[in-house]
Amino acid sequence: MIYDAIIVGGGPAGLYTGEKLSSLGYSVLILEEHSGIGNPCHCGGLFSTHVFEIVDKYGILHPAKRARIYSPDENSLDIGSDEIKGYVVDRVTFDRELARRAINRGCELHLKERARKIEYPWVITNKGEYRARIIVGADGINSVVRKSIGIRAPRILGAMQVITRYEVEDVEKVEIFLGNNIAPGFFAWIIPLFEDMAKIGLASYSSAWKHLRKLLKRLNVKPLAISGGGIPIGMVDRSYAHGILLVGDAASQVKATSGGGVYPSLLSAQCAVETINRALEKGDYSDRFLGAYEKCWQERIGKELNRAYEIHKIYRKIRDRDFNRIIRDLKDERIIEIINNYGDIDYPSRVVAKILKKKPTLLKYLSIPARPYRKQL
Question: For the segment 50-70, what is each residue's pLDDT rounded down to a tens digit?
């Protein structure tokens, strides 16, 4: 049998792509290396509202409306209101609902089946060999599919997270910790799950687990469960080849400002479905034809991902003493109003541009000229 599409990886991007292609009447096989969908889960589970403009509201624990951001000197900035900015989601439930929908649409799903080698049109696994007209690499940061087409891997930011008992002040408030002593190059987070339980994690360019242990000690909490993973930072050279597309973490479709990838991966999966549908209709699987996929996702979310990466590169250079000053400077009613009105974790460049326009003195902390930075955003 020759499948119309084989999708390597059973995360949100792969499952969504499979469901939509199956609903169009195509034969689809999804290969997932783990024994269950949704596990292991390295995600913080904080989704923007935009995710649920694409898929139904699966696995929602509660809304996220507010945030408290701590500077290295433990000063804090409170932002948000009663407006829902996102949702805390049970990723296992979320992913399994996507899998259920894909299966109900006719997808064939194989668990505990790892792709070992891709030689288009063949996918060779630990259990067998399969052929497809189109192969989709939705297999994460260490993508076998990406390696098979010679695309260089993005830089990986290490991330660690625990689930722990934690007395939550406000279940609808996320806490963020800045500083190079906390999480060099990125930040730490506390995401409430329930009133007495939270996810605490951080990402860093140096020993994420070492820094997380320090934070847990400071908070006086002990882990009930530990997970770790990586966040791709920066764009890959290309997300397609003859007969092959990459989606999600495999294509580094991730916001470098927050590490979140579900929304951009789902937007990109929509582009993948559109491109694959046209390719199957025409019987054209050439890289020339499939290049339309990259053009599509770059137009929908790629520009913002590039802006987020530029912001991330600037953020990495900020010193702790400047984080302290920035938080103090942001504690301005006019700035907080801008953040509350325009803040969007999926489109960070919009609020950054408005803040800098309102308070250009913040540029002094970035050690860059004002005009190029505004142009860049």
Answer: 999 999 999 999 999 999 999
